[in-house]
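Q: Can someone sanity-check these two? First one:
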Amino acid sequence: MKKNIEIIILLSFLTLTNIKAQELTGRVTYNVSLNLTIEEATKRNNAIGRKISQRSIDRINNARDVLAFLEFNNQHSIQKLETKLNNEGKNIRNKTKSGAGNKKIYYTNNSFLQKNSVVDCETLGECFLIEQPKPVWKITQISKIIGGYLCFKAVYQNKLYKEKKPIAWFTPKVPARYGPKFFSGLPGLILELEDNTVTFTAVKIELNPKEEVKIKKPKGIAITKENYEKLLRKKFPDFYKKWEKYKKSKKS
């Protein structure tokens, strides 16, 4: 099995080398759906000694799919959610939109280190360009077809995800090391991603479109994820106290 995985990676590298002289650009539209159930949400709340609210139940029941758009070239990529969202006139926050990142922008610099950043301009009142940890993946031999492309399963290995590890399905046929949010670094484009509460599924893939793909690095105060979290802890101490209580309950 290890040999097969190595062959997949080698073929992807050779393909990427062959097209190095030409620009590979693309646009991907993902449908984002909620994969969080009321049972799972109730279990999480019980773990921190808090009863799930009716409002939270309503948000799960009334969640609606949204669209996410990824644009990329050989140098970098950027991903955002659609700006016009319809929740059928209900005055309830869309749980799917929250899980998919709301108004955050996800930027990847396709360097040797594959640097990923999240742009957050809402939480603390000004724009921060938050550098994310280097992606680490475990590639498997499990495969399936998505949108006509043969894809392989990979499991995200970053230590921050101890409970539910994200799962990506990538295709070596498109040698672009990008995907939704800050999930990147695989030897092929991610066409499906199962994150903590939402699932991204590619519904439209445009490679080398006629309209030029122009990407500008987002502006913001550059900061590491660790230092940004320190700022959040100062701003929202009560939330983090509950979160620490939840993590301790999972260990016991």
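And here is the second, same format, sequence then tokens:
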Amino acid sequence: MLSFITVISQQNNICFVKYSDNGNNWNYLHWYDNSKLTFTYETNYQVFDFPVNIDGKYIKTTDTVKFKKEYLEYKEGLYKELGKIKQPITQREYISNVVKRTQYANENKEKYFVLDTIADMNKWEITEDTLSILGFNCQKAVINYKDIKYIAYFTQKLAYPAGPRNFRGLPGLILKVDSENGSIGYIATEIKFPYTGMIPVLETDGIPISQKQYSIIAEENNKKKLMKMNNFLKNPSIKQN
């Protein structure tokens, strides 16, 4: 479950899009309005194996039939732990390269207001190739951006000059984008337009910091999170502090 401050949209020009990534462990939730986009994440973590206690020793298994009770308890505990982590809220105006983000760290005890500036993405080459995504006819475009080739499909039926994460610069909404080297890939799996539900609010009262400065803090916190998660995976019966 996501945890953030929200408001209810009363406008009929909001478009909500959920994207999945190649790794399939995260969903990317985007809200587009006339002037800006807001996005955050939710976990889509797939449980392929899990620990069970056999004769006092924990071993990993994929047998969800024989160990159904243990599997459900483990999955519930894992998602509970993941749900405690507040996900960042990111916002950017379409006409700006400045990205603003509410970012939590140190077990949600610290809140930062992160500012980052991203490079222009305006040298797309639009082709005649098309692809249907969720009922929208999309046109293909390609770009070399920071020495990586990206292939995107966008629709002018949704006239938002943006896309998943920081992809942008086309005359319509990007519903699918992949890097040629396979390292990055997003595709829209759900679209709601017009959207009148909850929208996360960018909080600006955190500690002001640059992306470069925050990256140093994040690296240390990620090490701590990984250690905690590994301990949980080894022995889910031990309460994590």
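A (reply): Looked at the second one. The CA atoms of residues 148 and 187 lie 18 Å apart. The first helix runs from residue 68 to 83.
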